């Protein structure tokens, strides 16, 4: 049986980077750059919201790896509190910084309207002041909101934090359970996802059912970790098998088939990647991919703020959205510039916000550290209401 410490997180970290890149592509084409509207040509863009499901499955897997041993037998109050504080401190500082950026952006929009510019309505239905409080409390998926507000992508960290609260208790129920209980947990998770996704057809569930979506897929990730540590996938973790599973999952998304196939495919893919020591592991351990994964939380949190800021500047300077009059060449140039800016900002935020928070965690006693596991960077993904930029 594998121990938790033997999991090489580099390939899984790279998967997060790839997922974050697909989320950016999902938001940066279509409404923002109409000439680069790839949605009609492939579900990999039109249904880019499904890459959030990869984040949720990864999160369940890695949380089981990093903290499962602490909670597998029982939940002690001190250990639960240390775990929750650690996860809160890991995701919250960047969340607050990005929200502050959106407040500044809405204020700038209001000032622009006072100066006579047509830049849309400031503090509109997606950025009411009272909604800011809901976001600050990480209650975006509690049923209070009808759709994601302020920083739309942050709905997913609200969902994930609610699941974090339950994770220690899920660990007690699942991580040392027999096969029958694990099968029952998996069936319950799939049934839950079927119910909230209109029979598996539409997993684009955010403010209303986002926490349930996250919870079901988190459980799938935890079960995937159970399979991984049992060595049952050792002989199946060859690179050819992994490429086949990845291709089948991506092809299902490309065809815009049953949405539920995506998280099911991801739940098979993640333990296979974790167990691979061949070509796939080497490819996913390339430094640039690992670096992208390390800053992926910043990538997905900041990219929508940058999109809105560029859109506001364009409306002030030229009176229309930045992509309205651009052809394919101009749109590609803007896209490249935006990607470069997102990466630069993400590295900066990672170093100035995420890393200091991590250092703070290292100075804070945590019972969860007794597992000897790796400290896991925040795993989350995002989508907003649809693939059109409002």
From TrEMBL:
Please give an example of a GO cellular component term from this record: membrane
- Which keywords does UniProt give here? Membrane, Transmembrane, Transmembrane helix
Check the UniProt entry and state the signal peptide residues, or none.
none
For bias type Basic and acidic residues, the affected ranges are 373-390
TM annotation in the entry: 12-29, 49-70, 91-112, 154-175, 236-254, 260-276, 288-306, 326-349
In its UniProt record, which GO terms are filed under biological process?
polysaccharide biosynthetic process
Molecular function GO labels: acyltransferase activity, transferring groups other than amino-acyl groups
Q: Which residues form the Acyltransferase domain?
A: 14-350
Q: Where is this region: Disordered?
A: 360-390
How is this protein named in the record?
Peptidoglycan/LPS O-acetylase OafA/YrhL
User: From which organism does this entry originate?
Assistant: Aureimonas pseudogalii
